[in-house]
Amino acid sequence: MNWKEIMGMGSQDSRLRLIAAAVIALAAIAPATATSAESGALRVHNIFRSNMVIQRDKPITIWGWAQSSRKVSVQFGEAKAEATAGDETGRWEVTFPARQANAAGQKLTVTSGDETIEMDNILVGDIWVMNGQSNMAFGLGATFRADMETATAHLPLLRRVGISPNESYTLQKDLPADRISGWTVCTPETAGGFSSIGYSFASRLQRALQIPIGFIDNARGGAAIESLVPRHKFNDDPLAATSMLVMLGIVALGAAADPATGRAETEWWAMPHMFGAMLGTAWISLSFVMQFNLIRANFGVIADVMRQVESKQNAAQSSAAELIG
C-alpha cells in the first residue's frame, strides 16, 4: 500500500493539484490593469514573495508589470530569462523549464533598468489550494490542545500563504497587497495561524513525501463554489448560470437593508426587501433539493477549466523541452 492509498487520495491527487495550477494559470493569462500600465513601476504579481513554494514538474511562469517597452530580466537560481513589457499594458512574462522538487532555498531576482526586486528562500515542490468555508478556515491555534500540535511544527519545508476575502464582480488581474499575507514558513510560533485542516493535511503530506509543500489558504466562512468558476464559464452551463442569476437577484434585493439596523432604508423598499428575505429563505430550502445538481454543474465547469489549463501547461512544457534540445 502506497502513501496515496494510506491517505485516501488516489486519483484526486492530480485533480486537486490542477486546481492550484488553474488558480495561478488563470491569473497568469490575464492582462494588466490600467493602474499597472500607467504607473510604470517594476513589480511582480503579489503571489510571488520570499519563502514561497513553486510547483514542481511544470513550466515555471513568472510575470508582472513594468514601464511599457522596457526590457525585464529574471533570474531564478542559476537560470536567466528576458522579456519586454507590453506596449499598452506594461505586462511582461517569462517561463522557465519545469524542475524537480528542490528543498534548497533559491533566489528570484527581477531587474528592469535601475529597478530591482529580490525574493529569497524559494523552494520547488507541490502546491495545494485550501478553499472552503468556515470549517476549512478554522485556525489550528483555536483547536483543542493546540499547543501539543504546534510544539511539533518544526517544518521548514512547509509554507502557507493566506488570501483574505476578495470576491469581485469583475476579473482581477492581481491580488490586492492588503489581501495577501505573504508566504509563512511553518514553525511552532507560526503554525497556530494556519488553517487547522490545511495544516493537518499539508504537514502529513510533507512528512510522507519529504519535499517542499506549499498551500494557498483561500477559505472563509460562507464561501460559494461559484467563486472558483471563471465568470465567462457560466455561459457554458445553463444550470450553473441559472443558479448564479437567482443568487445575484436575491443579493440585489437584500442590498436595500441598512447594515446597522437590518431594516429597509425607506418605506418604498420595505416590501421588496421583505420579499427578498422570503425568497432567500425559500431558495435556501430549495437549494437542499438542488444542491447535488448545482455542485455537479459547477464542478463540471471547473473540471473543464482544469483540462484547458493542463493542455496549456503540457504545450508549454513541450515547447520548453524543444528549446533545450
Question: Can you walk me through this structure?
Answer:
- The chain is α/β, with parallel strands linked by helices and about 325 residues long.
- The chain folds into two domains: about 5-225, Immunoglobulins (Immunoglobulin-like), CATH 2.60.40; about 225-325, no CATH class.
- It has eight helices and eleven strands.
- It has helices at about 5, 10-30, 35-40, 135, 145-150, 195-210, 240-255, 265-325, and strands at about 45, 55, 60-65, 70-75, 80-85, 90-95, 100-110, 115-130, 155-165, 180-185, 215.
- The strands form two sheets. Strands 2, 4, 5, 7, 8, 9, 10 and 11 form an eight-stranded mixed sheet that branches. A three-stranded antiparallel sheet has the order 1-3-6, with no helix packed on it.
- A hairpin with a 2-residue loop joins strand 7 (about 100-110) and strand 8 (about 115-130).
- The radius of gyration is 22 Å and the shape is globular.
- The model is unreliable at about 1-40 and about 255-270 (pLDDT under 50).
SSE map:
Blueprint: H1 3-7, H2 12-28, H3 34-39, E1 43-44, E2 53-55, E3 60-65, E4 71-76, E5 79-84, E6 91-96, E7 102-112, E8 115-130, H4 134-137, H5 146-150, E9 155-163, E10 180-186, H6 196-209, E11 213-217, H7 238-254, H8 267-324
Parallel strand pairs: 2-8, 8-11, 9-11
Antiparallel strand pairs: 1-3, 3-6, 4-5, 4-7, 7-8, 9-10
Helix pairs in contact: 2-8, 7-8
